[in-house]
Amino acid sequence: MEQPHVIPVRKAVVPVAGLGTRFVPATKAVAKEMLPVVDRPAIQYVVEEVSAAGIRDVLLVTGRGKSAIEDHFDRNAELEAALEAKGDADRLAEVQRPTDLADIHAVRQGAPKGLGHAVLCGREHVGHEPFAVLLGDDLIDARNPILPTMIEVQQRLGGSVVALLEVEPSQISLYGAAAVEPVSLAGIPDGDVVSVTELVEKPSADEAPSNLAVIGRYVLSPAVFDVLERTEPGRGGEIQLTDALQTLARMPREEGGGVHGVVFRGLRYDTGDKLDYLKAVVQLAVDREDLGPEFSAWLEQFVAGRHVELSSDPAASLPAR
Question: Could you tell me the pTM of the whole model?
């Protein structure tokens, strides 16, 4: 049953207070969200996704040493003037683009108390409206957006909505896992929307209720704030958003409860660890019109040459000790 009165989703919260320990020493003095993915920092892809979904108000939940993120979305008059003086219109447009994407606000998390606490830091800014939450480790390909569908589901069914991805059972322990029931919603393909009945944070393969993993996109009811206030620290001594969503899934709809999921079937780039970050850079570079053809040709030659080099080295075929 679709709800008769809806409040539009106008704001997004983007937690960026993490220390980026998996990328040290690169992140010793540089925010992990500012690491380049081809020629844009990872955080810009996230804000571009928010903007494309029609949301103009973005709250960054930051921490110490993260001022470069705010600076990136601010004007740089000196650089703009230098590019304009050179007549470099293309680069000038690229420098100005982040500033024009959205209205950027920031609040400090203060202490690393978990994703749930980071979301709670946005309470005063968000108010009593549904809102989006996007994590910077998951980059969603602009050709396969999921946020607009999630917003539509929230507007039609109320409550909160999570993005779900089918993963190999051996990988489910890296994510929150969802137990689901099918939902039929006119205009959306069958199987793409489900009702979430249970969420388990990073379960073992034997304990997971399914192989549907929660990835870093949420559209949340403002009821989540009261729930987070009452949520005790969980795994790792942190306030887990998954625990709050589990509570919301059991709450009555008229109280802002209920959780649905949208199953994502598009392209996603995980920049959360070194290997996946490198894969993301290569995948996105190959798909670029300006870089793809030449880079792909070089990549094929490099891989072929590397294969020949390894095949000609007898030591390469010896088992590791």
Answer: 0.90
